[in-house]
Design goal:
The protein has one domain. It is about 10% helix and about 50% strand. It has one helix and ten strands, in the order E-E-E-E-H-E-E-E-E-E-E. The strands form two sheets. The protein has a seven-stranded antiparallel β-sheet. The two termini are about 25 Å apart.
Length: about 120
């Protein structure tokens, strides 16, 4: 079920993942004692982004050859449904890489953090 993300969460630390069912980005906030989905968006902007992959989840994907949610981008929600374009793109493929990566001129580098991150669909800018 698609739930619009409220602008009330701007300034809140969130974690984001690509929703495998609806193709949107699911946004979770830490409420109470657990991470809960607070909405879905096509694009968003995060400050102080951290890219994290659960190694156990990645191994499950490889063993079962079935997708599961195990990779997140954490950060402070700065804007939703934004058209900001940043120069470097990061992506994640559990069959090829253990982390989020950037690729430039044939060179692949792991990425763990970024001061600003724009996320649209499956592309992290």
């Amino acid at each position: 079920m698609k739930r619009e993300l409220s602008t009330d969460f701007i300034g809140t630390r969130v974690r984001v993942y690509r929703n495998l069912r609806n193709g949107l980005m699911s946004v979770q906030a830490y409420l109470g004692k657990k991470w809960l989905v607070v909405g879905h968006v096509e694009s968003l902007l995060l400050y102080d982004a951290e890219f994290k992959v659960s190694e156990a989840g990645r191994k499950r994907v490889i063993e079962q050859k079935r997708k599961n949610v195990h990779a997140f981008v954490y950060g402070e929600l700065a804007d939703i449904n934004t058209d900001v374009v940043l120069p470097t793109k990061a992506f994640y493929n559990p069959y090829k890489y253990k982390t989020f990566v950037t690729e430039s001129l044939g060179r692949v580098d792991a990425v763990n953090c970024a001061s600003i991150s724009a996320i649209k669909g499956i592309t992290i800018l």
